[in-house]
Write a structure and sequence with these properties.
The protein is about 30% helix and about 30% strand. By secondary structure, the protein is of the alpha+beta class. A hairpin with a 2-residue loop joins strand 3 and strand 4. A five-stranded mixed β-sheet has the order 1-7-6-3-4, with no helix packed on it. Strands 2-5 form a two-stranded antiparallel sheet. The protein has a single domain, classed as Roll (Structural Genomics Hypothetical 15.5 Kd Protein In mrcA-pckA Intergenic Region, Chain A). The mean pLDDT is about 90. The chain contains three helices and seven strands.
Length: about 80
């Protein structure tokens, strides 16, 4: 399984935007189709909400690729 580490640039990213930002899909429309077909998992569970808020620590999987979402260092340092 291929692994991608994705660093957030804020508190969260919507699921369809994450798939596009990582290059797993060519468009947001394609991402929304795959999500609605139940082909995307978040933390091991099928996710059907196209704009689900994905936060640091969550793992998204699609077509044998796992995306680990990591905290934005500037946000993490503010919370300490």
């Amino acid at each position: 399984m291929q692994n991608i580490d994705f660093e957030l640039r804020g508190e969260y990213i919507e699921l369809d935007k994450l798939l596009k930002a990582t290059g797993l899909v060519e468009s947001g429309g394609r991402a929304r189709v795959l999500i609605s077909e139940g082909k995307v998992q978040v933390n091991g569970q099928d996710e059907l909400r196209k704009t689900a808020k994905i936060r640091a620590g969550q793992v998204v999987a699609l077509h044998g690729v796992r995306i680990t979402v990591m905290a934005d260092p500037s946000i993490a340092s503010l919370q300490e």
